[in-house]
Design goal:
Layout lengths: L1 H13 L6 H13 L3 E2 L4 H8 L3 H13 L3 E3 L5 E3 L6
Antiparallel strand pairs: 1-3, 2-3
Length: 86
């Protein structure tokens, strides 16, 4: 996720959220399966598990951020906030 940490942050802060429900659900499932946290170590694997391209991931992250379902951490990781992830 090294390349994704900054991209996630920039996307969340600057891009409009155009991800569909399918993309959001795929990313949520992949992050939950990874323990609810996307880090530099597991980011690429989470992206592959979601089956989304970079643009879809960025849009889904922005949509989840806008919905209050993800939180960017000081260390550059991203925490998912759902019923399965507190």
């Amino acid at each position: 996720m090294t390349r994704y940490a900054l991209a996630f942050a920039l996307t969340v802060l600057t891009a409009p959220a155009f991800a569909g429900a399918t993309e959001n659900a795929a990313l949520i499932a992949a992050i939950e399966a990874a323990g609810c946290l996307v880090t530099t170590e597991n980011g690429d694997a989470v992206t592959r598990a979601a089956g989304l391209n970079d643009q879809q991931v960025y849009a889904a992250v922005a949509a989840l951020y806008d919905a209050g379902q993800v939180r960017l951490e000081a260390d550059g990781s991203m925490r998912l906030i759902t019923g399965a992830c507190k």
